[in-house]
User: What shape does this take?
Amino acid sequence: MNQYETVFILTPVLSEEQTKEAVKRYEDFIAKNGGKMVHQEKWGMRKFAYPIQKKSSGFYHLFEYTNDGQLIAELEVLMKRDERIMRFLTVKLDKHAVIYNEKKRKKKKEAAKAKSKEKAQA
Amino acid sequence: MAQGNSDIRYLTPITVDTKKKKYCRFKKMRIKYIDYKDANFLLRFVNEQGKLLPRRITGTSTKYQKKVAQAVKRARHLALMPYVADLLK
Assistant: This one.
């Protein structure tokens, strides 16, 4: 089992519901093909560093999942054919990357916790 | 009036540039993985045009320079960093 990470960019033309639906579709696809979601992250609308398809921003989303690698090819074909997806990148994570991501998540969680605590005190 | 150059004196001794030894920051800080999603960090390894800086300037070791390059390229693909730019930073 390897751990993979996929980031994809949806067109900004879609409504909020449509983006949710698109994300859901790939989530389901991964689940159906034996991938186990470890983490996912919605980056939301972000400005591009350069225009893509004459657009200056897009909706970013990240999946992190474990799989034996069979599903990747199919997933990428699916994404390539999907007009809603402007860009995608799948990366296999090595052991250092997995540790790094876990640490990052932990930090974020703690930061969020501290923030909520502050709010509660205030 | 007719003094030789040897008479020039300085109040403080001139500091001859002693070169600071460069080091690989990844080895020193024990960073094992370079995240392509962290564009702000990767900005340190490119020049103002968004081109990768050579190892001889940043001091990164070969092993990590390869990873830096890979990470920058991934970031460019996802439009987190520009392929070409001017006055970046």
Notes: The CA atoms of residues 21 and 89 of chain A lie 20 Å apart. The interface with chain B takes residues 7, 9, 48-50, 52, 58, 60, 62, 87, 89, 91, 94, 96-97, 99-100, 104 of chain A (CB under 8 Å). The beta strands of chain A are 2-10, 36-52, 55-67, 85-93.
